[in-house]
Every structure is written in C-alpha cells, then in structure tokens.
Amino acid sequence: MRSSRRVAVRLGAAALAIVAAPLIPATPAWAHNSLRSAAPVQESTVPRAPREIVLEFMQRLDPTFTTIVLTDGAKRKVPTGDPVVSGATGTVQVTDALPNGTYTVAYRVVSTDGHPAQGSYPFTVADPASTAAPLGDASPAEALGAATATSGRGIGILITGVALAVAAVGAVGLRRRRRTR
Ligand SMILES: [Cu+2]
User: Fold this and answer.
1) Is the peptide bond before 40 cis (omega within 30 degrees of 0)?
2) Is there a domain that residue 170 lies in?
C-alpha cells in the first residue's frame, strides 16, 4: 500500500515533468537572434574610414524593423543611408567621409520570427593620411558656441544677483516702513 502510493507520487512527478518540459524554453527568447559579425569589427581600429556599416545577424531580419544608427565621439548622429536588409544582414551606407575618431554603431532589429535584438559597439577610425580634423576636438564654431554658453550663464548669474539685491533692498525698505508706522 505504502509502496504503491510512492509509485503513484513518482508517476505524478514524471507526468508533471513531461507536461511542464515544453513550457521551459531551451534558450531564452533574447538568445534567438544576436549579432554574428560586423564591419567595421566591434572595438576595432580601422586605418580607413568605412563607406558602409555591415551587420550580420544569426537570423533573417524583418526589413521593416531594422534600425542602424551611427554616432560620433560627441554622440552626434552621423548621416547614413536607410538600412538595406538582405537575409540576416543589414547594411547602411555612410554618406560622408568619416574624420578620425571613435564612433558608435547602435542597432535594433527584429528577426522574421518576431524576436527583437539590440545593442551597440564602438570602433575607431585612425587614418594616418586623414586631413580632416579629428572629431572630439572642438571645432572653432563649437568653441565659440561654448564661449557664448558660458557668457550666457554669466549673464544668468548677474541677473540672479541683481534680483537678490533688489529683493534685499525691498525687504529693508519694508522693515523701515513698518518701524515708522
Ligand atoms: Cu526567436
């Protein structure tokens, strides 16, 4: 009696395991698709500015949801063409010649089975023959903008100071008026 109950429990546990097994995915959903390879290679330093960014994924991409964004060292968006999808590969053409500097490729894609994948990685352009000023160093226009911003802040502080002084004078005046009453 006792042993048959034990068998029943074991059978029940086995049945539960069989029922539950398909509910536990072999791999998490996020592992369905990921970046297989990239050009320029992740974290690489390239001697020539790339004319395109090529991202190859593990699974076929849905062209509707493929986004590839290139930004420079100052986090400014670098102009590119629209993403072109071919199977598991997404490509964007780089519109302008990239000056030396560090860039970030950010992507968000959805595979044809509906699973999203996203990420980003940096790469560096270090062309010894590059004549363009490296990004990251402030250009004269940027330096001017920064100076204007600083003087703007100075004016802000000045206005705050004047407002505080006026308020202080007003408070003193009010106190005097109260005393004279
Ligand atoms: Cu999937």
Assistant:
1) yes
2) yes
- Residue 15's CB is within 10 A of a number of other CB atoms, namely 10
How far does residue 68's CA lie from ligand 1's centre (Å)? 20
Which of the listed residues 102, 125, 148 is the one where a domain comes to its end? 125
pLDDT digits (tens, 9 = 90+) for 31-54: 579 999 999 999 999 999 999 999
114 alpha carbon – ligand 1 mean position (Å)? 6
- Say if 4 falls within a structural domain: no
CA of 117 to the centre of ligand 1 (A): 9
Pick from 51, 122, 117: which is nearest to 88 by CA?
117
108-148 pLDDT per residue, tens: 999 999 999 999 999 999 999 987 665 554 444 444 444 44
Interval between CA 77 and ligand 1 midpoint (Å): 30
Distance 32 CA to ligand 1 centre (A): 4
Q: Has residue 25 got a pLDDT over 50? A: no
Closest CA to 66 of 108, 24, 103: 108
Domain that residue 165 falls in:
138-181
